[in-house]
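User: Can you predict the 3D structure for this chain?
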Amino acid sequence: MTAFTGKVVLITGGASGIGAEVARRLRARGAHLVLVDLDMSRLRELAKELGGDEHVVAVSADVRDLAAMEAAVAQAIEKFGGIDIVLANAGIASYGSILEVDPAAFRQVVEVNLVGCFHTVRAALPAVIERRGYVLIVASLAAYVVMPTMAAYNASKAGVEHFANALRLEVAHFGVDVGSAHMSWIDTPLVRESFADLPATTRALAAVPSPFRKTTSVQECGARFERGIERRARRINVPAWVGVLRWLRPLLQTPFAERESSKTTSAWLPEIDAEVAGLGRSLSARTQALGKD
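Assistant: Here is the predicted structure, written as structure tokens:
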């Protein structure tokens, strides 16, 4: 028996990256899984790997569609009887400055990352309340510190953090705990695609102190999520130093700090925008393809 034996865990963005890694870890500890994603080929492969229909429900659903998320939750309840844990993990990022980014891509990032989080929680919350469960909202380091050319991602992840904080206050009296996760660069498809599409990003990060630009493995991130979910943590920071930036946030937003940051930004931002213009798209090719399905 483990802390997850028999627990039902719903994970959005469950086909790859952090979602898939957490799914593997919790399934190994006896959890039943409801995995939601648009990439059904990967999702089916993962479901088969984790034990098939007996232990995993794989659902093709777009988190931007509340009815689709309600249907996913209904499948979970029909199969496993309820939901104990929700990991609202689905997320995307766009490319380019506010002047360069495709407005449709900007809107899509906000809809997936923020509105999609709301839809996931809204659909699953009655079931989670019934079991006095736990909700983990995946935010980002970007909720603490902004990076130019990532305005949609920054805004959506800051919104997600506050969404988690509001939710925590609203459901505490039901015995439900709520956490938010904040990660720096994790070796996920989203990060790898961004670096591959925009080589100037690597050059931009060269101005950042080395600990802050290091990429963390999905396995290490998954291990931190596993421990955090088990203890129903208020915050999970990956790596641990990310949590320091939460407390430094007021200092990083002073005119002096912003003035210093703008000096380096003006050097590399035009390079990134030129690369975005050359790509002819403001999303990764994979994200763009999935969004059209």
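Residues 8-291 form a domain with the Rossmann fold fold (CATH 3.40.50.720). The mean pLDDT is 94.
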